[in-house]
């Protein structure tokens, strides 16, 4: 499968994403409750980078 085209036309995106199925995601602030929720509902769990960066700033 090709993943690059020299143009930005819709026909290129249609070819690139043909057959891709939607995935349910959950993005939260890292509250522990959401770990189980994401697991139980088979969600892709995305953490919030703004909250992650706070720990690095403190360090």
Secondary structure layout plus pairing:
Blueprint lengths: L9 H7 L8 E4 L4 H8 L3 E4 L1 H10 L1
Parallel strand pairs: 1-2
List keywords for this structure.
59 residues; alpha+beta; two-stranded parallel sheet; flat
Based on Cα principal axes, name the global outline: flat
Note poorly predicted spans.
none
Helix content: 40-55%
- Span from first to last CA? 44 Å
Average pLDDT reading: 85
Q: Total number of β-strand segments?
A: 2
Number of helical segments with 4 or more residues:
3
Domain Transposase IS66 central: 3-59
InterPro entries: Transposase_IS66_central
Protein name: IS1 family transposase
What would your notes on this structure say?
The protein has 59 residues and is α+β, with helices and mostly antiparallel strands. The protein has a domain at 21-58. It is built from three helices and two strands. It has helices at 10-16, 33-40, 49-58, and strands at residues 25-28, 44-47. It has a two-stranded parallel sheet with strand order 1-2. Helix 2 links the parallel strand 1 (25-28) and strand 2. The longest helix is centred in the last third of the chain and has 10 residues, at 49-58. The termini are far apart.
What would a concise description of this structure say?
The protein has 59 residues and is α+β, with helices and mostly antiparallel strands.
């Amino acid at each position: 499968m090709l993943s690059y085209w020299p143009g930005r036309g819709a026909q290129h995106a249609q070819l690139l994403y043909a057959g891709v199925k939607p995935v349910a995601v959950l993005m939260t602030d890292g509250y522990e409750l959401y770990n189980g929720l994401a697991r139980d509902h088979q969600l892709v769990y995305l953490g919030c980078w703004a909250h992650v960066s706070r720990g690095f700033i403190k360090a």
